[in-house]
Design brief:
The chain is about 30% helix and about 20% strand. The radius of gyration is 20 Å and the shape is globular. With about 375 residues, it is an alpha/beta fold. Helix 6 (about 155-165) packs parallel to helix 9. The strands form two sheets. Strands 3-4-5-6-7-8-9-10-11-12-13-14-15-16 form a 14-stranded mixed beta sheet. A two-stranded antiparallel sheet has the order 1-2.
Length: about 375
C-alpha cells in the first residue's frame, strides 16, 4: 500500500464527503495554516464523530484562528548558527532537513515552516555538517524538520554517512511522526531499514523519535513498522504534547503509555503544548497537565512511565517535578545556559498558567532560599 497524500480541502471532500458549511470553515483555516494528510491516516478517523481525537490531530478547526501565540515560541531563531542548523544545547546539534511532513499536525510548534514565511530549511546541509564537525562538544545530532522520512532514502543515507564520519557524533536522532502518519513508508522501502541498520551500530545508535499522540495511532501496521526499525538496530522512543480534547484524559494516556511499552517503544517526553500561533485551543493548563500524567501512571508499570513532563521554553527544557496545593516545583532538565541545568525552582500555584512565562509572580530558589520577582 502506498497511501495517496492530500493537501487541499477539496481533495479531502472528495475522499470523505464534507458538509458545505464544514468544508467552507476548513478552507478558511487552511488559507492560514495549511492542511496535509494521507489516505491511510484519514481512514483511522471516525467521520461520524465530530470530536474524534485523530480528526483533531490533523483536520483544520476554526478554533485555530482564535487566541494569541507566536510563530517561534521557543525562540529557535536565536539558536540558529547556520542555515538549517540550530545549536541550543552544548551536546546537541539540530538539522532542519525539510519543510515537508507526512501530515501537518494542527498544533505543530513549527507550523511557520509550512506557511508563507522565510524559508528555514536548506536542501544542502553541508554547512550544518561542517559546523557539527568543528564543534567537538556535539555528541548527538537531531535530524528534523518537517519529517526527514519524507526524503528519499538515498538522501537520508548521504547525510547519515557524512555524520558517521565525524568521530564525536555518537547518537543520531531522527524526529518523525511517520510511524503514526504513514507506517508504509518503512514497510514498503526495504532499503530504508538497510541504510539505518548500516549506520546504527552497537556503539553508536540511531534513535527514531516517534510521535504518537493517541493510542489509536498504534495500529497493527504501525507496530509492525516499529518492529522493522527495531530489528534494524534503531532505538524507537515516543513523545507527545498534552492536547486538549485529544489526549487530555488520564485514561487515554494510560492506554498510550501501556501500548507503547508493550511494543518496546519507550515513552520519552510529554510536552506542555507550546504557545505557537493558533495553539491556544490545544493547550491544557500546566498544573492540570501534570495531574493528568500522574493519574495516568496509576495503572502503568515502571517501564510505561519513564517519560518526563517538560516545557520546551526558550531558555531550556523545564521539567515539572511536583506540586502541592499552593506550590509548583520545577527544574531545568536541559538549558541553553549550562549553569542552569538542574536548577530547582518553586513557584506559587497558578491553575490558569499554560506556559512557563505565566508564572511571573514570586519565584523561590530551593537551594539559596532567595526569593525574587520573576
Amino acid at each position: 500500500m502506498n497511501p495517496k497524500y492530500l493537501s487541499t480541502i477539496s481533495e479531502l471532500d472528495n475522499l470523505v464527503g464534507l458538509a458545505s458549511k464544514e468544508r467552507d470553515a476548513m478552507e478558511m483555516v487552511s488559507e492560514k495554516f495549511p492542511f496535509r494528510s494521507n489516505e491511510y491516516y484519514l481512514s483511522l478517523i471516525d467521520w461520524k464523530d465530530d470530536h474524534d481525537p485523530l480528526r483533531g490531530i490533523v483536520i483544520p478547526d476554526p478554533a485555530e484562528l482564535k487566541g494569541g501565540g507566536c510563530l517561534d515560541p521557543s525562540c529557535e531563531r536565536d539558536f540558529t548558527r547556520k542555515p538549517g542548523l540550530q545549536h541550543k544545547y552544548a551536546q546537541t546539534g539540530l538539522l532542519l532537513m525539510t519543510d515537508v511532513c507526512g501530515g501537518i499536525c494542527r498544533f505543530c510548534f513549527r507550523k511557520r515552516l509550512f506557511m508563507d514565511t522565510e524559508r528555514e530549511t536548506v536542501k544542502d546541509v553541508s554547512g550544518g555538517i561542517d559546523y557539527i564537525r568543528e564543534h567537538k562538544e556535539i555528541t548527538n545530532v537531531l535530524l528534523t524538520g518537517g519529517d526527514p522520512l519524507t526524503l528519499e532514502t538515498c538522501r537520508i543515507e548521504s547525510i547519515l554517512r557524512r555524520l558517521r564520519e565525524i568521530e564525536h557524533v555518537n547518537i543520531i536522532r531522527i524526529g518523525s511522526k511517520m510511524l503514526a502518519y504513514n507506517p508504509y513508508r518503512i514497510l514498503n522501502d526495504t532499503d530504508l531499514c538497510s541504510v539505518l541498520s548500516r549506520y546504527s551500530t552497537p556503539e553508536k545508535r540511531i534513535y527514531l523519535m516517534a510521535h504518537f499522540n493517541h493510542p489509536r495511532e498504534l495500529t497493527d501496521v504501525s507496530v509492525r513498522a516499529a518492529h522493522e526499525l527495531q530489528k534494524a538496530g534503531v532505538m524507537v522512543v515516543s513523545q507527545t504534547p498534552i492536547l486538549n480534547g485529544i489526549n487530555s484524559e488520564p485514561e487515554t494516556f494510560t492506554e498510550l503509555f501501556r501500548k507503547l511499552s508493550f511494543a518496546g517503544i519507550s515513552p520519552y517526553y510529554v510536552f506542555q503544548c507550546r504557545p505557537s500561533l493558533g495553539n491556544r485551543f490545544f493547550q491544557v493548563p500546566v498544573e492540570q497537565s501534570y495531574e493528568i500524567i500522574q493519574k495516568s501512571w496509576q495503572a502503568c508499570s515502571g517501564l510505561a512511565k519513564r517519560a518526563r513532563f517538560v516545557m520546551s521554553h526558550a531558555t531550556g527544557k523545564i521539567e515539572v517535578v511536583g506540586k502541592t496545593a499552593g506550590q509548583v516545583f520545577m527544574r531545568y532538565h536541559q538549558s541553553a545556559d549550562p549553569a542552569n541545568i538542574g536548577k530547582f525552582m518553586v513557584f506559587r500555584s497558578n491553575p490558569l498558567a499554560r506556559w512557563f512565562d505565566d508564572y511571573r509572580h514570586v519565584l523561590t530558589d530551593f537551594e539559596t532560599k532567595k526569593t525574587w520577582l520573576f
